[in-house]
Amino acid sequence: MKLNLNIQPLSSWMNVTHQPLVISGPCSAETEEQLLATARLLKATGKVSVLRAGIWKPRTRPGEFEGIGSIGLEWLNKAKAETGLPIAVEVANAKHVKEALAAGVDILWIGARSTVNPFTVQEIADALEGHDVPVMVKNPINPDLSLWIGALERINRAGITKLAAIHRGFSSFEKTAFRNQPMWDLAISLKTLLPQLPILNDPSHICGSRELIPFIAQKALDLDMQGLMIEAHIDPSVAWTDAAQQVTPAALSEMIDGFVLRKAESKNPDFVDKLAVMREKIDQIDDQIFQKLGERMKIVEQIGEYKRDNDVTILQVSRWDEILQKRTAYGSVLKLEKDFTEKVLELIHSESIRKQTAIMNATKAELG
Ligand SMILES: C=C(O[C@@H]1C=C(C(=O)O)C=C[C@H]1O)C(=O)O
Q1: How many angstroms separate the CA atoms of 122 and 124, rounded?
Q2: 291-300: per-residue pLDDT in tens?
Q3: Mutation test residue for ligand 1: of 299, 301, 349, the one with most atoms within 8 Å of CB
Q4: What pLDDT score does 363 carry?
């Protein structure tokens, strides 16, 4: 299924001065000096296309620094006048949108804590009506693809066609090395449903610590994401917010130099030919896999009927356990990750259970 949004290509509204597209700037604008000094150094790298700064900050607990507020718009405009960099801010309500538009902000983004709430997104969308400003929508904090798509649809329906998504990772109970779980599958699903939608990655919020950022950023580029939003601060050690995940402009520059840029496709005829041959092999193997899955399910159905006629339960834990043990061991010999093998088997098993349940239920109904 493909969704239908009216979106302009990124290249028609974003002047990418260096590949990959990098949007950078401090997590929060703190002082005029901090913002201007950071902006100057970012500009000097020659590798940053847009300056970002948070001026209204949604914080988990009250009493923390909640952003410098509207004065930050003036500082951003000073930075823009000096560096020539277009400016981007986060907006979380109609007032923010109004002020940002009045100040001539070039790009607005909607944060994860706003995307999660359709009322907030609709309020922002209504405030955007009639304005031709680029808007970027971060994923919601919870891994709900529909909410993310819904927010993009609301903004698009307000007439915003310069639209992009930002993948910043998802909250989870699970404690891992990441501040927010990347859950790449969701970004891949969004790209599959909306191939024309530019998706940027925000490795700063996924990682939560600067050391991890280059790895996540490279992975995002390898997944064909169209740019990166990376937080940078003149001196991260004294940052008022998110100190651990900000990098200096110099570190950012070095990081960008280390990226390997891979293209979405190659026109080299030799490459195209070899790829076609390998894909033909994959097609044949996929045919076989599905043929075999079909055959397996037929036997599962026969077993279901046999169990039904002999009043035996559908779920057979010891048999299921035996399959799990045997196949994961075999899978590891075949160099398949245990986690992958288990996921495949679990999918197959739950489909078996579903099929056999249908057989049992049909009979119960017939027996009436
Ligand atoms: C097919 C059966 O029913 C269920 C499905 C299984 C499977 O798909 O392999 C295994 C055990 C049962 O939970 C069976 O009992 O063998």
Answers
A1: 5
A2: 999 999 999 9
A3: 349
A4: 60
